[in-house]
Here is the input.
Amino acid sequence: MSESWVIGRGEVEYPESLLDLDRLSANRSPRQLHGRGDRALVAGLDPRRAVTIVGARRCSAYGRALSSELAGSLAAAGLVVVSGMAYGIDQAAHRGALGAGGRTLAVLAGGPDRAYPPSARSVYRRILASGGAVVSESEPGYVPHRFDFPKRNRIMAALSAMTILVEAREPSGSRITADAALELNRTVGAVPGPVSSQLSAGPHSLLRDGAELIRDAQDALDLLLGVGALTAERLGTSLDEECKRALRVVGEGTGLSELAAGAGLDAARAAVALARLELLGYVRAEAGRYARTGLVPPADA
Here is the structure.
């Protein structure tokens, strides 16, 4: 396990983006950042190359998969994914970035020397092992209290040029992060969801108030860096002919019978193709329906 380190406000390594918090009277920039992992990642963090992804702890399977996919594509494009290591959307974002071989930065409410919540120990270890970092304004050994989490959220908002909300009820701690980003004149994006879901209330409220619509990683990259400046394509592994045919038919919420008919496969073969596509990361499933992810087949596919 890496040793703890500290960067004080006024030191050359202190992230300049955090100083923007001094414009908000109630949210002064942290006096110190305590951390573990790659100190240089924090010291050299360019907010234009970082995206904060937050959302509900009790998220849906759809939200978890979408958060992971979004973070993975952004990390694969070279951006640092910032989140808070909480249950649900936050942990999915960290896992997605790690799965893509990218780097991710976790901002904790408690000390940086212990995973919080404790169930995030494996994510915590993977972040440190992969060249990422964990930071907090609290000293090592500090156990967080309820009021520490809103304070933590302002740091997540300040570190990145963009904050994206994926599933959240109203009100929520994730909305606090988005509101802090708005106060800091950062770009705020929201991922739309089913109108019947309470988990869509937070993102839809932001969209109604003028937040940017985020459908996928390309939307985020275009907003952050300019249209077409960087693509979010992630190449998957080669596919056999039946998987290729099935993948061409998959849209947003395709059912098995619809896919079988469109791909010219019987139900059994279509089910096998879908299972393989899901295993390889080309599609995600929820409630018996399938949708494509951002993974792209190689040229030979």
Q: What stands out?
A: The radius of gyration is 20 Å. The chain has a mean pLDDT of 91.
